[in-house]
Amino acid sequence: MAQVEEGTYFEKERDKLSREITSGFEELLSTTNGLNRKLEEVLGMTREYETIAALWRCFYDLMKQSDLPEGNTTMEEKPPGLPGTGGHVLK
């Protein structure tokens, strides 16, 4: 009758393992939530960088247009560059 009151060894071990598994799942859930938050932060930063990249692209395009000779819309006939900038070509 002592086994009925205290439970069998199998039941004790089963309960102990169930608690360990439950604890493991809770820790896994907590860690997964932390990872999810970090991934959301990274995605948010990526969106911010896309905005900044688009701004710099607009600036670059604007500067490229100002480098074109009057009346040209392409870069095929570039005017001679400045010495020391890599765009200067000796003829």
UniProtKB/TrEMBL annotation:
It is found in: Chromosome, Centromere, Kinetochore; Cytoplasm, Cytoskeleton, Spindle; Nucleus. Pfam families: DASH_Dad1. Coiled coil: none annotated. The keyword Cell cycle applies. InterPro entries: DASH_Dad1 (IPR013958). Its main location: nucleus. This is DASH complex subunit DAD1. It comes from Lentinula lateritia.
